[in-house]
Task: inverse folding
């Protein structure tokens, strides 16, 4: 059986961030499920679940 986290290890981390993805591996997950969306320019990819982001979801690592 494989263990995957949904949007990363969110306990103490923002979802869909590199930190949350790395914590998933640290705690033994086999993989991470996350959402990819096109940016407005249709050239940039954004790792986000919702089409509209609020300020609390914007994290730069």
Result:
């Amino acid at each position: 059986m494989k263990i995957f986290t949904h949007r990363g290890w969110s306990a103490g981390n923002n979802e869909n961030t590199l930190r949350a993805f790395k914590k998933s591996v640290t705690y033994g997950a086999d993989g991470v499920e996350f959402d990819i969306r096109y940016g407005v320019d249709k050239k940039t990819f954004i790792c986000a679940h919702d089409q509209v982001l609020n300020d609390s979801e914007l994290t730069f690592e």
